[in-house]
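INFO batch 0412 | record 1 of 1 | parsing
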Amino acid sequence: MSYIPALLAAGLVVAAIPFVDSPRPAARAREDTSPAAMMARIEGAQVPDRQGFDGFTLEQVMERTRVPGVSVAVIKDFEIHWAKGYGTADVATGAPVTPDTLFQAASISKPTAAMGVMRLVQEGALSLDADIHGYLKSWKLPASEHTRGRPVTLRSLLSHTSGLGDGFGFPGYPPKDPLPSVVQILNGEKPSNTGRVLMERPPFTAYKYSGGGVTIVQLAVTDTTGREFPELMKSLVLDPIGMRNSGFEQPLSAERDRMAARAHNGRGTAMDAKWHVYPELQAAGLWTTPSDLARLAIELQNALRGTSSRVLSTASAREMVTPVGVGDFAVGFGLRKLGEGWYFAHGGSNWGFQCDLIAHLRKGYGVAIMTNGASGGVAVNEIRNRVAAAYDWDSLDKPVPR
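INFO prediction complete | emitting tokens
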């Protein structure tokens, strides 16, 4: 998938390891597919050379990749089939990972917030194709020859095709450091620790991942509604879906911090702060759990098939999974064709956290995986491959010969 290398170069998603073409297990229909049996299948030693770890157990995978903690939620038949935590949430305290342990969603914040933006579009407060300047009051995108006759829009910003050239992710800020305003972030002014956003080509010319572009959307939304971003997303998305353990508050309150995982480096040791703070809320600011991310994916799956409209109508949901025509991003999610299946997906990488969310467009399955280690990408990919194999995802099927 083309967006993965670009995001990897920007340090924004976990390393991309393609799904392996594993043989479909014989007589799967007669096997025990209860949650306990499926967990055991994924946790146990795998067939050598089939998953890439030569028969290691999941615990051994975590040890080898030096990832202290992992949390997983598996989707089957449009429901959470099981959720479980593994390892340690904080090596400083020894607290275990549970299904309710909070992790930083990093760039999975983007499609989560994009669902809120789409609801505002659905309600008529915003338009995907209007000039973004009409929604910005406290800051304006600098004039550029690239935007003459081709305005920057919410559709282009949310699909990373706006022509913005920043290409950067966000490193976050130590909790004791001063935080920049959104305007300071966009201008690259201190105390911001990133450069300013800038246009380098006309909109819809090419795909280039732009955290700055998504931050422009954050400002447009708050300027237009006059509401604080965390409260707005809570009312538009998190509460209706039942994402009770999720929030865009940065920094975390002391109460919620008690449930939060610690950031760890690539050696699995504690960082110099428990976590970094991300004022770039729409781009990187969500704290959540795999179960809540699974609920988000299920809600989108159900909206697409017309069985739920708690947040979006079917037509609005389709905008989130229909690529705009340049690159493989829609309004919020990236799209992947794996084997004979189509999936919507997004990865995330913050300081000391790695995560991934992927779900099938039609078949009601998927998985959310979150880790609290900078080297968590390899473990994420291994777990995703194990889930795909255990649940017979159609990503493992070969094309039917004609």
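INFO post-check: Confidence is low (pLDDT under 50) at residues 1-27.
INFO record closed
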